[in-house]
Amino acid sequence: xxxxxxxxxxxxxxxxxxxxxxxxxxxxxxxxxxxxxxxxxxxxxxxxxxxxxxxxxxxxxxxxxxxxxxxxxxxxxxxxxxxxxxxxxxxxxxxxxxxxxxxxxxxxxxxxxxxxxxxxxxxxxxxxxxxxxxxxxxxxxxxxxxxxxxxxxxxxxxxxxxxxxxxxxxxxxxxxxxxxxxxxxxxxxxxxxxxxxxxxxxxxxxxxxxxxxxxxxxxxxxxxxxxxxxxxxxxxxxxxxxxxxxxxxxxxxxxxxxxxxxxxxxxxxxxxxxxxxxxxxxxxxxxxxxxxxxxxxxxxxxxxxxxxxxxxxxxxxxxxxxxxxxxxxxxxxxxxxxxxxxxxxxxxxxxxxxxxxxxxxxxxxxxxxxxx
Length: 372
Hints:
Oligomer: single chain
CATH class of the largest domain: Alpha Beta
């Protein structure tokens, strides 16, 4: 079959770009439509990307920010011509669903990383843009994102969510049902090494941004008196360093995939203190045979098996959550977790499983379209 693939922007390689990469592998002849592309980003699918003037404007601005271009993205997507494609596969964060209108009568499958979480959640907007100008700008973008989603939702042929939590958001915000296909994780790179000894540290991995709540993990580690390694960087880095005063907290900054793998392999446990839409890093840790200590909400409920591949922490307030993480750190016994069982759980999130499930979704969508 012939398909077209749509993605919102290509300015970095993160979880959603790995989804696009696997879709591109499953359909090796599919053109990939992306309105904003940074030519410095490398990926196997880049030669197939079709872009336009928004990418030129982004380059002219010397890659400082793509935010001023976002209001133009829906219009660019609505004008796309998908030619003879039998189906259009859309990777959606906030604006990509606008391509549903361009598809017309062609079946559309929208893979939802999340309905624009910052658009629907006022608290998250305040955390993402604390200044008044930032709040005004993000408020404008939020209204646009919500309008795009509401306009597209009734016309989507099939909606696929990356987790059970995201499927519930789709139901709440779009009034549509979604099936769940978890995103792919590179379990071929992230593997156990029986020869590597466990260290004495817990690991916090990923971007240091407000919604991921790195502050909770750091405060809990200081309270429990345990060693924490923080691998990653971001807007919250300076605040996190202040919170770590007096504790045994090491900031490793941005590290390579190989360094990440070594840190996963040596950690007593990987820590996820915030609510993720799905969360790739816990699965990477599990692929290395390492247990996960996670806040018991969001995507972690789909990946971590409490008592088998890790432990869940709960709480009603920040103070209670910090205290419960600290208590879990202080009493944590990684020896009661079987690395083999943890690895087997991670294998359920392989790229091969993802591609097979998405191929089934597309086939079923086309079959339903032909019967209609």
